[in-house]
Amino acid sequence: MELTAAPRISSLVEQHGTAGSLRPSAVARVGQAVNLAVERFVTVGETIADDYQEIRQGMYEACKEARQAGSVATTKIKVPTYEGKVSWNTYWRQFEAVVRNWREEEEEATSLIAALRGEALEVVRTIPEGSQDYKAVTSALEKRYGDAHLQHVYQAQLRNRKQRF
Fold it and tell me: Is 95 exposed, middle or buried (0-12, 13-18, 19+ CB in 10 A)?
């Protein structure tokens, strides 16, 4: 299976550009096809194992490894949560790295909103419901938690310190 699938996938990628240029939905379809192929392999392998005692243990182990390999190939990385207590820029870079690899563009705002907790989620609630697209959500969070926000906080703290003397 592996020997025939790899050249087919490689030729498809070569015809349509690099693997990084494939749309996430195309990658998901390839993942589904891999899972189907793995399940077919496992079904045949387990049937053979049931019929032949001498190879049963080895065949069951091969089937288990095939399932694990198939699930790793299609596992999505969990979107990290954000509460507003750490640097927005650091979190946003991490979030972007995750969603750019496996999400459709229109899902990004939904994924980000679902990852927010506490005060960070309250920021999003100030955006009108019909306007909560990815750009509006990231802009509101950047305004509240980004470096520009910290500059105002530090200036206020500096003013308070000067007044004490």
Answer: buried
Q: By C-alpha distance, which of 123, 99, 94, 93 is closest to 111?
A: 99
Contact 102, 29 (CB under 8 A): no
Inter-residue contact 16 to 22 (CB < 8 Å) = yes
- What are the beta bridge partners of residue 116? 82
Backbone angles phi, psi at 23, to 5 degrees: -70, 150
Q: Are the C-beta atoms of residues 91 and 99 closer than 8 Å to each other?
A: no
Distance, CA of 151 to CA of 157 (rounded, Å): 10
pLDDT digits (tens, 9 = 90+) for 102-119: 556 567 888 888 889 999
Element (H, E) at 67: helix 56-74
Domain ranges of the chain: 2-74, 88-164
Q: Residue 85 gets which letter from DSSP?
A: S
What count of Cα atoms within 13 Å lies in the side-chain half-sphere of residue 122? 6
The pTM for the full model equals 0.46
